[in-house]
Write a structure and sequence with these properties.
Layout: H1 3-16, H2 20-36, H3 38-69, H4 74-82, H5 86-94, E1 97-98, E2 101-102, H6 107-126
Antiparallel strand pairs: 1-2
Length: 130
């Protein structure tokens, strides 16, 4: 088992630990792992932190979209700005698995989504009933 795999296993155990004694034991094992392979341990921690950041960004997108999804049509955004289906759009917002991998927006798609929201906002702001 690689250092990264060992680190992930210990981290997962720590998350579900139910007592201080158990958590302290896991911390001791983490320290031992860090001492036995400092470079591998550092790489494992950085990889884990990077994944956590990516997960947080994905959650942030989902939460932000939830704020406006009841006000504007996700179907409209998918069709008019991406030329895609609502299900395609939903897969990316919710990071559903597609072909065994979580579907995510590319940076270009995030730029398009931000443009769509600004464009809709501008259109609504300029709209007046005569």
């Amino acid at each position: 088992m690689t250092t990264k795999e060992q680190y992930e296993k210990l981290r997962d155990r720590e998350i579900v630990s139910e007592s201080d004694a158990e958590a302290e034991k896991i911390h001791a094992e983490l320290e031992q792992l860090a001492e036995s392979d400092p470079e591998g341990f550092e790489a494992a921690v950085l990889a884990c932190a990077g994944q956590t950041l990516a997960d947080a960004k994905a959650l942030k997108i989902k939460e932000q979209m939830a704020q406006i999804s009841s006000m504007i049509s996700m179907s409209y955004i998918a069709k008019h700005y991406f030329n895609k289906s609502k299900s395609w759009f939903s897969q990316r917002v919710n990071e559903f698995d597609v072909n065994g991998k979580p579907a995510k927006f590319t940076q270009e798609e995030l730029d398009t989504l931000n443009f769509a929201i600004r464009d809709i906002s501008d259109k609504l702001g300029a709209f007046r009933i005569s």
